[in-house]
């Protein structure tokens, strides 16, 4: 069957695992339609996150069992049509999307995306589509990490890797919610970035016994919450400075993939440990994050870091950039 131009779209996909330049294909596939409860979005941008790159490289061996995969969870665009049960008033809305390629094959790296209407959040007019592609994983993760145990006003919050994608937003959430914020960074440039958005203290996590600098600053007062980018590698230092009844919210442990927990020490501190990933967040937490994110966007209250913006034909390069690292900020691909 020959499809007309209106029935196809440009998309990126992979049908085998491997290096981005070897397995990512850019070409035409069938254009989706909005099913019941869905919206059809004409995508303007797609965001590239470490989880997207790991999937393409083969981190989930059964991912391709159902066929080829259009990657990426985050992105932004404009609603073109709606399925049954969705108000037609949503047509024309600027939206940002999250969780596009989770438990399904078709993500945001395409001209069109059909997705559950609840996964398409209103993008304020003052917010660019490039920023919209940075919100799903980085900003929702940071929101959950900071607020998983309730308000932080009057608390001391430690954020490791404060210049990273999640940490940069976490500093702003915590600071604007009334917390004293301590961050870690590995160089002067990242230190300045953390300070510019409200960190009260920035220590170098590559120095030995960096917890001592934190305790010196707080005059011996322990911190209430920790948002951690390297749980296994940082745990020994974190346990030196977290108070009884404190919370550790972590979203990554890349350097020490299977950390050993000092159970008795953590138990006697009555610690709460939250392992955070957007896909598994309770729906109420997702909706709370969306509400708070859009309020911040509408009032221009947050700063955003976009390190690279690439054209669609350079999508393989976007994956390579994530793998190479060495920069701070989001990687965004313009679809049109």
Helices and strands in order:
Layout (H helix, E strand, L loop, with lengths): L7 E6 L6 H4 L1 E6 L7 E11 L1 H8 L16 E9 L11 E4 L14 E5 L3 E3 L6 H4 L2 H13 L8 E4 L5 H12 L3 E6 L2 H9 L4 E4 L6 H8 L4 E6 L2 H11 E9 L12 H6 L3 E4 L7 H16 L7 E6 L3 H10 L5 E5 L2
Parallel strand pairs: 8-9, 8-11, 9-10, 11-12, 12-13, 14-15
Antiparallel strand pairs: 1-2, 3-4, 3-6, 3-15, 4-5, 5-7
Helix pairs in contact: 4-5, 4-10, 7-8
Question: What attributes characterize this protein structure?
Answer:
Quinone Oxidoreductase, Chain A, domain 1; globular; seven-stranded mixed sheet; six-stranded parallel sheet; Rossmann fold; 336 residues; alpha/beta
Fold and architecture overview:
The protein has 2 domains: 5-134 and 304-334, Quinone Oxidoreductase, Chain A, domain 1 (Alpha-Beta Complex), CATH 3.90.180; 138-278, NAD(P)-binding Rossmann-like Domain (Rossmann fold, 3-Layer(aba) Sandwich). 30% of the residues lie in helices and 26% in strands. It is built from 11 helices and 15 strands. The strands form 3 sheets. Strands 3, 4, 5, 6, 7, 14 and 15 form a 7-stranded mixed sheet that branches. Helix 9 links the parallel strand 12 and strand 13 (272-275). The longest helix is centred in the C-terminal third of the chain and has 16 residues, at 283-298. The chain is globular. The mean pLDDT is 97.
């Amino acid at each position: 069957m020959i499809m007309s131009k209106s029935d196809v779209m440009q998309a990126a996909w992979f049908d085998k695992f491997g290096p981005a330049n070897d397995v990512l294909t850019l070409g035409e596939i069938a254009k989706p339609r909005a099913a019941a409860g869905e919206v059809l979005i004409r995508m303007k941008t797609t965001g590239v996150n470490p989880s997207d790159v790991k999937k393409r490289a083969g981190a989930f061996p059964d991912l391709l069992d159902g066929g080829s995969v259009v990657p990426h969870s985050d992105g932004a665009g404009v609603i073109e049509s709606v399925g049954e049960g969705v108000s037609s008033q949503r047509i024309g809305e600027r939206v940002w999307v999250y969780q596009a390629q989770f438990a399904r094959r078709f993500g945001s790296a395409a001209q069109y995306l059909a997705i559950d209407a609840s996964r398409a959040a209103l993008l304020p007019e003052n917010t660019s589509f490039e920023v919209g592609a940075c919100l799903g994983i980085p900003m929702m993760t940071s929101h959950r990490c900071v607020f998983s145990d309730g308000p932080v006003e009057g608390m001391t919050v430690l954020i490791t890797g404060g210049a990273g994608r999640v940490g940069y937003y976490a500093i702003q959430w915590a600071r604007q919610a009334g917390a004293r914020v301590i961050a870690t960074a590995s160089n002067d440039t990242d230190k300045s970035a953390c300070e510019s958005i409200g960190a009260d203290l920035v220590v170098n996590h590559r120095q030995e016994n960096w917890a001592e600098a934190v305790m010196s600053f707080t005059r011996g007062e322990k911190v209430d919450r920790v948002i951690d980018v390297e749980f296994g590698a940082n745990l020994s230092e974190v346990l030196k400075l977290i108070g009884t009844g404190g919370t550790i919210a972590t979203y990554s442990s890349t350097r020490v993939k299977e950390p050993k927990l000092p159970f008795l020490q953590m138990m006697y501190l009555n610690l709460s440990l939250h392992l955070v990933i957007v896909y598994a967040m309770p729906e109420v937490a997702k909706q709370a994050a969306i509400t708070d994110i859009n309020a911040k966007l509408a009032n221009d209250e947050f700063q955003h870091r976009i390190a690279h913006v690439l054209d669609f034909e350079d999508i393989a390069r976007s994956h390579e950039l994530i793998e190479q690292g060495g920069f701070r900020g989001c990687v965004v691909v313009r679809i049109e």
